Amino acid sequence: MSTEEVLVIGAGPFGLSISAHLRALGVSHQVVGKPNGTYRAHVPVGMNMKSEPYASDMAAPRPGYDVAAYCAQHGYDYTERLGPLSLERFLGYADWFTEQLVPGVRDITVSDVTRVEGGFRVSFADADPITARQVVVATGVLPYYRIPDELAGLPADLLSHSKDIHRLEPFGGRRVAVIGAGQSALETAALLNEAGADTRLVVRKPALNFVQPNPETLSWAGHLIRPTNKLCEGWRCAVWFSPEAFRLLPRNVRITKARTVLGPGGSWWLKDRIEGVVETLLSHQVRQAEAAGSGVRLRLDGPRVSTLDVDHVIAGTGFRIDVDRLGFLSAGLRGQIATMNKYPVLSRAGQTSVPGLYFAGAPAAVSLGPSERFIGGTHNSVRQLTRSLAARATGRRPALDVPVTADTAGSPAAV
Ligand SMILES: Cc1cc2nc3c(=O)[nH]c(=O)nc-3n(C[C@H](O)[C@H](O)[C@H](O)COP(=O)(O)OP(=O)(O)OC[C@H]3O[C@@H](n4cnc5c(N)ncnc54)[C@H](O)[C@@H]3O)c2cc1C
Fold first, then answer.
1. Cα angle 392-394-397, degrees, rounded to a multiple of 5
2. What is the residue-wise DSSP string for 161-209?
3. Rounded to a whole number, what is the distance in angstroms from the first to the last CA of the chain?
4. Rounded to whole angstroms, how far apart are CA atoms 151 and 179?
5. How many angstroms separate the CA atoms of 247 and 233, rounded?
6. Could you tell which of 7, 17, 19, 38 is best to mutate to test the pocket of ligand 1, judged by most ligand atoms within 8 Å of the CB?
7. How far apart are the C-alpha atoms of 150 and 122, rounded to whole Å?
8. Rounded to whole angstroms, how far apart are CA atoms 45 and 35?
9. Full-prediction pTM beyond 0.85?
10. How far is the CA of 364 from the centre of ligand 1 (A)?
11. Is 294 exposed, middle or buried (0-12, 13-18, 19+ CB in 10 A)?
């Protein structure tokens, strides 16, 4: 069995950025997964990025690999603010970044990671197993998709999670209910409506929340009043974008803010495509869902409608991090990872309570802050994470390896 110093599981923005940095540091590694697979197959065609163009750059080990540089090289118009950046342009950028900085991504699927003496034994669904001294889990949010209990009993041909909606044409002329009020739910509803589906949005809250647009330009004084980072703008955002500041906050605040900062709500550019355009049932909650004829009958609690018959239901009900959902980590290994509210507890460098096992991306949000849910978070964590991997690779004790307090200690190492 071959041995690798580092295995990076995931080839989305975090895995790619980590691989680019490891390469620059000269650390031998493999990166596996579908390159930009989430944006390529698990978001609706025609979507726009929620993040501002300037906040959609992946961290690179040297300057010159941001969206602005990509557009300049290819002769595309680029606006730093209020894009919105289209999915198509972002994918073009992400592929270019990959070609330049991350050659050799292997599109294979990890099926098992088990701790062994000196590292981890990693099995693949479609390749020979390897041993890796260190492993980074950068598998994004898809494994944590959430379907509410009321919908869970519907057969697969009548129910989809929004992560499984890619092409909209098959829904043209059909009655579709979208459940939820976050960006995915709202954007899917808008695109379905524009694709000719008879769309109903079912929302628990009494009102939709649309984020206010940022100012189109900022003067130097504007930058002082409204400091800008790769996540959002304003002084409060400076805390959300600083892992150091975030780690000083009390446990309960971290748990809440990890999820709610820039949480459920739609981009400003969705407002005109939803309000007065897509029929929206506010203050309505699904109580029960059952197959009826060739479609679905939804029983609702709410002031206007108690029964809704549709051909298909889309759960835009988001994701909930839970380390136990990562079936490719062996049960023994999962049991050794200290957690807080089901998130892995991580050091500043992203290392779990299991030496040599790191997490990047959304699962790092309770330890490093809400920026880890977004591409901009790569600028906050990848440099620290890869330096820690590099230090361990040369037998040095990595800096930044103090974790925040955990709920579960993880069981003692069983190597
Ligand atoms: C609809 C939608 C829209 C979004 N829009 C934005 C936005 O505009 N701006 C923003 O900043 N963020 C956005 N996000 C958040 C998004 O999760 C992050 O921006 C970013 O994609 C996270 O990168 P990642 O590398 O952690 O994971 P992902 O991009 O999800 O990549 C996961 C990688 O892991 C691989 N993988 C998974 N399991 C395995 C396995 N078992 N073996 C091997 N490989 C595996 C996949 O193939 C893939 O390569 C959006 C999310 C969604 C769902």
1. 40
2. EGGG----GGGTTSEEEEE--SHHHHHHHHHHHHTT-EEEEE-SSSS--
3. 19
4. 10
5. 20
6. 38
7. 37
8. 17
9. yes
10. 13
11. exposed
Q: What would the pLDDT profile of 48-106 be if each residue is shown by its tens digit?
A: 999 999 999 999 999 999 999 999 999 999 988 878 999 999 999 999 999 999 999 99
What strand order describes the sheet that includes 312-315? Answer: 159-161, 312-315, 175-179, 198-202, 279-281
Structure tokens at 105: 């991504």
Contact 62, 40 (CB under 8 A): no
Residue range 361-384, pLDDT digits in tens: 999 999 999 999 999 999 999 999
Query: Prior bond to 344 cis, omega within 30?
Result: no
Fill in the amino acid letter for 2: S
Of ligand 1's atoms, which has the minimum distance to the CA of residue 50?
8
Q: Which two tokens stand for residue 152?
A: 């869970």
198-202 vs 2-9, strand pairing mode: unpaired
**What is the 3-class SS of 268-336, one letter each residue?**
HHHHHHHCCCCEEECCCEEEEEEEECCEEEEEEECCCCCEEEECEEEECCCECCCHHHCCCECHHHHHH
- CB-defined site of ligand 1, < 6 Å: 9-15, 32-34, 37-38, 43, 49-51, 56, 109-110, 138-142, 163, 184, 328, 361, 374-376
Report the candidate in 3, 8, 14, 21 with the shortest Cα–Cα distance to residue 357: 8
